[in-house]
Design a protein that fits this description.
285 residues; mainly alpha; 11 helices; amino-acid transport; ABC_transp_permease; membrane; BCAA_transport_permease
């Protein structure tokens, strides 16, 4: 049971890193970016190419995945996304889902449709015993790194001048610009940062979740579940939601394998009935 709990926490942490970029763009920028999984897939394939073709260390691949995905996000935001910030949500959904299909087709053409594998460093491979509990080394690494990223993200958004400028730009764009805030730059950096987090999550998830051209479509619903259950007004909400959903998914597939994949959806329904606006949503309609 403790092993399942540990694996569920690791899975939930990974879901949070993958989805927290969507939390930023959807909750703070009010933009529905369903192509979020495409940036995660880009980070995963950057890791695969660097490790398998050029023999670069896994530890160097993680920051590279973040930077490349952030750069892709910055370029797309400046050339395409910025024109849709004031567009209806349906236009944003159709545009971003179109990018997903283009990314899936392009990846399948250039990289092939087979599952991609990476070889972890020896110190991250295998399992070890901690007080009688089987602990996967890579999952422990995932938990520690994702926890540090979650703390850093919360501090950046709530305690820094940049986070204050971002919230001001979202609440009232005209007043923020009147106060001297460069709103386009704030939005571009925020979008790039969210895309970079997705790329980092994709790099880390290549070993646990698997990686193929359909990655954005397979995990799109998981990202949306984390954001909808956790709410979009804080980072702590999606963090707790990802942990609960990760543990429920792993435990459900182990204890009730016949209906295991549906446990996470059942939990989502119950939580949204109890808290329709998310776990830590602010008051109001």
């Amino acid at each position: 049971m403790l092993t399942i709990l540990f694996d569920g926490i690791a899975y939930g942490m990974l879901l949070f890193i993958l989805a927290c970029g969507l939390t930023v763009t959807l909750g703070l920028m009010n933009f529905i970016n369903l192509a979020h999984g495409a940036f995660a897939m880009a980070g995963g394939y950057i890791t695969v190419i660097m490790m398998n073709r050029y023999g670069i260390s896994f530890y160097w691949c993680l920051p590279a995945a973040f930077l490349v995905a952030a750069l892709i996000g910055l370029v797309l935001e400046r050339t395409l996304y910025k024109w849709l910030y004031q567009a209806p949500h349906l236009d944003q959904v159709l545009f971003s889902i179109g990018i997903v299909f283009m990314a899936v087709a392009g990846t399948d053409y250039f990289m092939g449709g087979q599952q991609q594998l990476i070889n972890l460093p020896p110190e991250l491979s295998g399992r070890m015993e901690v007080m009688g509990v089987g602990v996967g080394r890579y999952r422990l690494f995932t938990i520690v790194l994702c926890a540090l990223l979650a703390i850093a993200l919360q501090l950046i958004l709530s305690k820094t001048r940049f986070g204050s400028r971002l919230r001001a730009a979202v609440d009232d764009r005209r007043v923020a610009m009147g106060l001297g805030i460069n709103v386009p730059v704030v939005f571009a950096l925020t979008f790039a940062f969210g895309s970079g987090l997705a790329g980092l999550g994709g790099a880390m998830g290549a070993e646990i979740l698997g990686l193929d051209p359909n990655f954005p479509l397979k995990f799109m619903i998981y990202f949306l579940i984390v954001v909808s259950v956790g709410g979009t007004s804080t980072v702590s909400g999606p963090f707790l939601a990802a942990l609960l959903l990760g543990i429920a998914d792993v435990a459900g597939k182990y204890y009730v394998p016949a209906i295991g994949p549906f446990v996470i959806y059942g939990l989502m329904i119950v939580m949204l009935i109890v808290r329709p606006n998310g776990l830590f949503a602010r008051g109001g309609r």
